[in-house]
Amino acid sequence: MAHQWRGVIREYFDRLDIEKGNPIITLGEGGTPLVDAPALAKLVGADEVYLKVEGMNPTGSFKDRGMTMAVSKAVGHGAKAVICASTGNTSASAAAYAAAAGITSVVLVPEGKIALGKLSQAVAHKAQILQVQGNFDDCLRLARDLAENYPVHLVNSVNPDRIEGQKTGAFEVVERLDRAPDIHVLPVGNAGNYSAYFKGYLEEFNEGVIKRVPNMWGFQAEGSAPFVNGGPVKNPETIATAIRIGNPASWDLALSAQECSDGRFGAVSDAEILWMHRFLSQEVGVFVEPSSATGAAGLLKTVQQGTSVAGKTIVVTVTGHGLKDAGWALKDEDGNEIKPQIVSSRAEEVAERLGLA
Ligand code: F0G
Fold first, then answer.
1. Is the CB of 135 under 6 A from ligand 1?
2. What is the pLDDT of residue 333?
3. In the prediction, which pLDDT does 1 show?
4. What is the 3-state composition of the chain as percent helix, strand, coil, each rounded to the nearest 5?
5. CB 329 within 8 A of CB 340
């Protein structure tokens, strides 16, 4: 049988905190493409920009890298149920990996604030879903409380197994480029992924594989930007629901990653996020969910504000698939609905409508 990618635990077993003999629950996550994006490089004036396309993971987001670790280890400890708070992607991933493991999943999501694609995934994988009257931060508080007091295992990124699995994204970037990029850009919500990539790069540096760690640049949505404001945001708001988080769980880890990497945090408006969402679809050919365009939007804004990235090699993690939150693609710049025209099946009419005649 031809070799196929075996999922991040088997591919990186020696570099992950997991014991031999621990069950491995995998859906083949990781091994995602690093896509050359010359249109984006040209736009920002960088030498090279690559997108690490995490929407190519089994449930359509980067969460799967961490979830294979978290669920495998939960099963190794005898857990029969996992729980998470989520803005959508974590719940989709937890539900899928729990299904693969044959255990129960419980997900707490903020009422009315998760994208339909993500909700349908959690339902499809038979999670017990509760919509909480509150925001993500309330859901996380509740999930931690329940995991502490009831027989259910927490798989949010406050669980270090999640960060451990997600660091493999950095390993793959280094393998592909044969070095570290100068700058690594990410959207930031709980800041788990930002912290995980830094951990991965730092380990590569400590092992002498790379000569320096990249500057870690993390971007939030303006209405939900605790790292930029310097403290929690009580009522976070943004159309980028995946990162609508006011009190990031990985606050300390992320701050130290930013300091150690000489990195930065910034904020972009919802309009800037949606502009980049469209640019990535139309000019690069990569369809991401709006939240996932936040990193690239922040990169562009930073350049527009006067920071040059000339001569730099940049990797931008685009975190989730466009189909997760597909409705945004069906709106134009002014927010009007886009509806393909209806035509007869006569070739002359179709040619005329297409401007071919
Ligand atoms: N992009 C997407 C598509 C996400 O779903 C998330 C987080 C992030 C970026 C931010 O990553 O939290 O590690 O800084 N989603 C979580 C969830 C909160 O519940 O699915 P982070």
1. no
2. 87
3. 73
4. 45, 15, 40
5. no
Q: Is 108 left (phi over 0), alpha (psi -120 to 50) or beta?
A: beta
Token couple for 121? 């995934």
Q: Is the CB of 89 under 6 A from ligand 1?
A: yes
Report whether 29 contacts 65 (CB < 8 A).
yes
Beta bridge partners of 219: 187, 266
C-alpha dihedral, 47 to 51 to 52 to 55, nearest 10° = 180
Q: Ligand 1 pocket: which of 319, 321, 323, 325 to mutate (most atoms <8 Å of CB)? A: 319
Tell me the best of 61, 83, 135 to mutate to test the pocket of ligand 1, counting ligand atoms within 8 Å of each CB and taking the most: 61
Q: List the chain residues with pLDDT less than 70.
A: none
Please state, for a pLDDT cut of 70, what percent of the chain lies above it: 100
DSSP string, 140-189: HHHHHHHHHHSS-EE-STTSHHHHHHHTHHHHHHHHHHSS--SEEEEE-S
Ligand 1 pocket check for 292: Cβ under 6 Å: yes
pLDDT reported for residue 257 = 98
Is residue 316 within 8 Å of 35, Cβ to Cβ? Answer: no
In this structure, the residue with its CA closest to atom 19 of ligand 1 is 86
- State the residue for tokens 């990985």: 250
1: which 2 tokens? 């049988």
Q: Which tokens hold the place of 283?
A: 């000019």
Is the minimum distance from the CB of 54 to ligand 1 under 6 angstroms? no
Within 207-293, residue ranges assigned H as helices are 226-229, 251-260, 270-279
What is the C-alpha to C-alpha distance for residues 238 and 272, in angstroms, rounded to an integer?
12
The radius of gyration of the chain from alpha carbons, rounded to an integer in Å, stands at: 20
∠ CA 344-345-347, rounded to 5°: 110
Q: Does 197 contact ligand 1 (Cβ within 6 A)?
A: no
Q: How far is the CA of 87 from the centre of ligand 1 (A)?
A: 7
Cβ–ligand 1 distance for 110 under 6 Å, the answer no
Of all protein residues, the one whose alpha carbon is nearest to atom 4 of ligand 1 is: 242
Distance 260 CA to ligand 1 centre (A): 22
